[in-house]
Amino acid sequence: MSEESFRFGQKRFFDDKNFPRGFSKSGEFTLSEAEILSLYGDTMLAFEAGQLEPETAEEKHFIKVLKHPNKANTKLEHVWVKYTKLTREPKKFHTLNSSSNKRVESVTYSESYNEEVA
């Protein structure tokens, strides 16, 4: 499968809401991935919205990938799956804080000093 048999978008694809500085400057996509999104993203979004019917085998496979992302084979399909994960799934982050409900009372230096002196 190659991108040549996948239709270009009618216009360049942008997502100013999620990537206001562009795909290539977001730090999430490589330059080639950003270029694929810009060229083919409009078509891929139209397929996803049901506004466009697939004409080639690659486009029909892309429709299947929309329902089953783990079946992505081409770079184009992988980039779209990556884009949808970044824009539609909540971002995960990890903290260094404990999740326990125990509160530890802190003792200031002056309180501990006063107790030793008294």
TrEMBL record:
Region (Disordered): 97-118
Pfam short name (any one): DUF413
Top-level taxon of the source organism: Bacteria
Polar residues biased stretches: 97-112
Recorded family membership: Belongs to the MaoP family.
NCBIfam families tied to this protein: PRK11027.1-2
Protein name: Macrodomain Ori protein
Species per Swiss-Prot/TrEMBL record: Shewanella colwelliana (Alteromonas colwelliana)
